[in-house]
Write a structure and sequence with these properties.
heterodimer; A: 201 residues; mainly alpha; B: alpha+beta; five-stranded mixed beta sheet
Amino acid sequence: MVKQRGMTKEMFEGLLAWLDPDRERAGQRYEELRRSLIRIFTWRGCVDAEDLADETFNRAAEKVPEVGESYSGDPTPYIYAIANRVAKEGLRRAQLYEHFEEGPMGWPSPHPEEPPQEEGQAERVSECLKRCLQELTDEQRSIFLRYHLEETGPKIGNRKNLAAQLGIAQNTLRVRVHRTRAALEECIERCLGQAAGGETD
Amino acid sequence: MKAVNEEERRIRRFLLGYSDEAERERVEERFVTDREYQEKVLISEEDLMEDYLDGKLSDEEHRMFETRLLATPRQRRRLAVARSVREYAAIEAAAHSPPVSSRRRYILPLAAALLICFGLGVVKFAGWPPWGSRRAADERLLEQLNDASRARPTAQILSAVVRPGSSRGAGASPPLSLSPPPDSFVELLLVLVGDGHENFRAVVWRARGEEQFAVRGLRPRAAEAGKVVPVIIPARLLPRGEYQLILNGVNADGSEGEVAAYSFEIGG
């Protein structure tokens, strides 16, 4: 796990301890929370979602000495409240400097150019998908692919039939497929990162 | 069930950006604190992505989806993955569908049903796979299979070089004979002689003159045998028998002209 930029090691350890007294569980909670915040920032239209998630944790870590002892219960709602403020600040900045190529004090343009590595993406994704599908069990792969067959013509009711064949409710099938997809997406991100020499968005 | 559906509707509104600030913050806080709820939101996002790919969103929803859910490179990659999964699933299904001969079971009852339809003026049928839409589906799959920008199928591919010429007439050499396993693909490398087209359409005929299917969007490439046009066909579309393949060059204005004819045979 990489220490946060702008956060000392002690601050980071304090933050983890606040999330959970068990270091390993704390690390997992941190990663899950970070992914959740990145998703929220993305939905809010923030293109620098990862930076905003890091900023949120920086601010939370600064608060730990002040509130950590007296705070009772799950710190997640508190951290979300910080994220909410960070998101609003970020969007206000983007609106203020909407018409500038580069904001004052060197702040990045709110409208970054499309990165060139998106060209040829479909082919790379397809190759990585093929590779990552092989890492699933035969059953997982079969269910996942059958779920995504076109729901038209003779295949109407494909998902209903699939759930019936497996002896599970349709919603249970949806959840199972979602978890497989989440694992596949992580695998594909790693594969694309390797193909691009470790570059990320 | 009604409460669950209302919850899904609320999540969908949130994802498309229709929620007010208070509602949005409620959903977001629950998203980070409640694991089960988080999964529901992520599943709804995937469902929205599928609706987007299926063209089921209204114009406004389509615009909001692109604005909110495709704003980052990672989200755009997720869409590319969703698209790729569908294509891959269709190609794999093509390799494992029942053999073509099972279609014949539908022909007589379909003919009888059509007669009844004309006689009584009844229009609706359920459960009959109409021949036209099955062929259209096969041809869509063939187009995807033969799109050079996409990955090749992972199932077994039997490749063979096929030279132009007819199997009829005195002195003609016997046609190429292939015996592909049932779940595999056949790749015909059609040798081109002195042709400058860059886009081709192949039409496959059974020897008795019955047109089977067409494959569009074929591109030539260099190979050991010279310039070839590769055509990948699922073995299930080639039951035992003799075939003729007509290769048409497609001009810039969309008009076509026959370039060459090829013969081959599928054995048992």
